[in-house]
Automatic annotation (TrEMBL):
The lineage of its organism: Bacteria, Bacillati, Bacillota, Clostridia, Eubacteriales. This is Transposase IS200 like. SMART domains: Y1_Tnp. Residues 9-96 form the Transposase IS200-like domain. GO terms for biological process: DNA transposition. It holds the Pfam family Y1_Tnp. Transmembrane segments: none annotated. One of its GO terms (molecular function) is DNA binding.
Amino acid sequence: MPRIARIKDPETIHHVMCRSISELTLFKNYKDKVKYLELLALYCEKFQCSILSYCLMDTHVHIQLDPRGSDMSKFMHGVNLCYAQYYNKKYRRHGHV
């Protein structure tokens, strides 16, 4: 069964949650969290989005995001793809994060 289509209202604020794959620690140290926040800032500037609040936990992330009419899916894809590449290179692994 397909998932329900995402509402794309430019006036809507979204709660976004991203998880790591099973039993993988997403942020092993403070530097990993800083890197993720740097990527959020970079992509916020690129997509003209606004982060209202966030919570970085060891295995997942919560973000309150105001996309301001930009494509939220592409925004999150960019952030998570870049972080996965960073993580895999740093911890000498490959595959999904």
